[in-house]
Amino acid sequence: MGEISGYPLGVIGALFLSVASSVSIVICNKALMSNLGFPFATTLTSWHLMVTYCTLYVAQRLNFFESKPIDMKTVVVFGILNGLSIGFLNLSLGFNSIGFYQMTKLAIIPFTVLVETIFLNKQFSQKIKFSLFLLLVGVGIASVTDLQLNLLGTVLSLLAIVTTCVGQILTNTIQKRLNVSSTQLLYQSAPFQAAILFVTGPMMDQYLTKKNVFAYNYSPIVLINGKETAALLGGISKDHMDMAFARIFDFLTVVVSESEGKERSTTALNDQKV
Question: Which of 14, 16, 123, 156 has the greatest number of C-beta atoms within 10 Å?
């Protein structure tokens, strides 16, 4: 009961919701930036984080989760790094095609493994390494054949990969050290992230787009789409999705490890029978 082929339904449901919410958010953001002509990705990110905090505040007041105090140093470090990660990802989406942006997100997984292997001495099985190698080859082929590939978009994507990799590792470390959930960590850090991006976003957007966010002609359809995207992110935060992807990778690692363990056990039993 509650499992399919040995895997919990909760995990399968989380995988489905992660993919569905990710696709929905990407489509909304890209439509807002490209079709509706709102190129201010960093400012948009600050709106997302403000709505995220408001949503989490209401959820906390309704006792959906318990708030845990986190020291200010941790909040500041996590907030800066995670804010940069989300900001660069949205900028990557704004300056690249959806396909290239998705390739950027896929590339985060193997680069995270590389960082953990080099700096944290983590060990991964040959099957995982080979799978990630094939993933990187696919990312490389898709990137080279992308007709909308450009230097600025590529640089922003690389920065997004680096900051997200480090951010995911830091998030995992903080959660284990303080025994807090991703929701509790985001609840404490979202106001700080939103404030930082709200102040720096317009300057960053003006430097990259040569346009002033305060001089933009805000039509009703832009405001409606912006609020819809922000509301969606408030309910299913971009930060939660990044953490979900990290958990998905952990889940796949466990599945592969269990598979290898079963193979070794079967081999040992056969040897004993012989």
Answer: 156
| Choice between 205 and 231, residue whose per-residue pLDDT is larger | 205
Q: Which amino acid is at 178?
A: L
Q: Which residues lie closer than 8 Å to 154 by C-beta, 6 or more apart?
A: 96
Q: What is the mean pLDDT of residues 8-32?
A: 72
Of 146, 170, 155, give the one whose Cα is nearest residue 246.
Answer: 170
Closest to 192 (Cα-Cα) out of 44, 40, 50, 41: 50
3 state DSSP class of 198: helix
Tally of CB atoms within 10 A around 240: 18
219: three-class secondary structure by DSSP = coil
Contact 55, 165 (CB under 8 A): no
Q: Using CB atoms within 10 A of its CB, is residue 244 exposed (0-12), middle (13-18) or buried (19+)?
A: buried
Instruction: Determine if residue 68 is left, alpha or beta; phi over 0 gives left, psi from -120 to 50 gives alpha, anything else beta.
Output: beta
pLDDT at 224 (0 to 100): 60
Size of the chain in residues: 274
| pTM assigned to the model | 0.70
Q: How far apart are CA 39 and CA 153, in angstroms?
A: 13
User: Average pLDDT, stretch 103-128?
Assistant: 83
What angle (nearest 5°) sits at the alpha carbon of residue 130, between those of residues 127 and 134? 140
